[in-house]
Amino acid sequence: MGLGPAGRAFPRCIALLALALDFALLLSVLDGGDSGGRWLAEAHLEWMPGIGVGIHLAVDGLGLALALLTAFLGMAAIAASWTGISERTGFFHLCLMSVIAGVMGAFLALDLLLFYVFWELMLVPMFLMIAVWGHGGRYRAALKFFIFTQAGSLLMLVSILGLYFVHGTETGIYTFDYMELLDTPMGRATEFWLMLGFLAAFAVKLPAVPFHTWLPEAHAEAPTGGSVILAGLLLKTGAYGMIRFLFPLFPNAAEAIAPAVYALAVIGIVYGAVLALGQTDLKRLIAYTSVSHMGFVLLGIFAWEGLALNGALVLMVCHGASTGALFIIAGAIEERAHTREMARMGGFWSSAPKMGGAALFFALASLGLPGLGNFLGEFLVLLGVFGVNPLLAASAALGLVASVIYSLWMVQKVFHGPALPGAAMPDIGGREAATLASMAALVLWLGLYPAPFLDRMGIKGHIGKTASGIETGSAKGTGANGLEAGRLAEHRPDMGDAPERQGGRKEK
What we know:
Elements: H1 5-30, E1 41-48, E2 53-59, H2 61-80, H3 89-108, H4 112-121, H5 123-133, H6 138-171, H7 178-181, H8 188-205, H9 214-221, H10 224-249, H11 251-277, H12 282-303, H13 306-337, H14 353-367, H15 373-388, H16 390-415, H17 430-448, H18 451-457, H19 459-464, H20 485-489
Antiparallel strand pairs: 1-2
Helix pairs in contact: 1-2, 1-3, 2-3, 2-10, 2-13, 3-4, 3-5, 3-10, 4-6, 5-6, 6-8, 6-9, 8-10, 8-11, 9-12, 10-11, 10-12, 10-13, 11-12, 11-16, 12-13, 12-15, 12-16, 13-14, 13-15, 13-17, 14-16, 14-17, 15-16, 15-17
């Protein structure tokens, strides 16, 4: 026997309450002020000391920004699923909260095995959300998502175990603790191969071209709440992993592979934008814009320069809000018009002006309108990358031209033009309007007054974390692979109770 309205509302309310409490607790940590590379909060408990596994959780400015985004978009996903999920609502919200727990844990974990547990925790419930509550091609999309992400995860597990044994062999201490593993002595070849396992997992989740092919299908077939979580949160775990683990643990290897990643990032920016122009399915179009925007994030991360990294982080947050909002609007249209095909849309503005206004706002954010957060993120990325390689920045800027075309074309095709027979549909209600307004406020705030956000991310501290891991090659302090170790050391973070680290990456 099915649940009545009250029974269906109960799991939604419990999930909302839990995330609201998480959000409030995280805001209380934010009151601690500028992280400056320090841990704002930390918990370290023994779990399996015999094999060097502990429950080590910590949050700094970077992790806090993304943890707040996780709680915020989790609440938005629940609100977006309020009427769309009417069957197995308890199980749906169990899956959704499990994914959010995995994402939140990944942003906080400083034990690599614990990080991997949280990384895997996202996989099965997200698979179920697509396979059980998705649309017509949901089984194929869910399976493709599972295969791609699991393959990358297994490669990362091999690298985690490899790093564990290399550190144990060289130091006599077998541990999965991130702070200890930062000092692992290893040869260049070993470092490079271990780095590839991490890079594969993070590139699939980001996703970077050519590991992106699971994303459009997953977005097209996922329920609205699932698309919000996918675009807003799961993609960000890949970018976070690169900042938190890839460069600090494998600085020389990351710098060595950077030129290849630059190429993939620029290809992703342009390729995603061009493919978005060719889509007729509204959700697929939005999915391909994510490939393009996350290409900017990838470019900013591998530039490993202050402005570019700040831009990448701003773009991560604003992409989560703006693209998540576009998926909410696409879901609302599908729920009302029973189609995702833009050929069967048109003239919706006359019957749904509030929805049209929201779509226009987030489309303008997506194309990078000055004054909105997406513009600031892309501008800082390009400015930082220009200092590294002007040609690279110019090539990436081509994606901005295409984004103007597909964003405005999407709004024109769906909301303007001649209305098709039966095109009238109800406008968004109070719940949807409140959800979209909160997401718009975040994008607008980061576009107009980003200073508090940037001050609390401690991004210079993350640049500094690689300084101790890069071999100094000259008296001037230039790293062996071209990184300016002296410049990075200038921003070395104070890690609180962590032991002081001397010298560079020890090589065998």
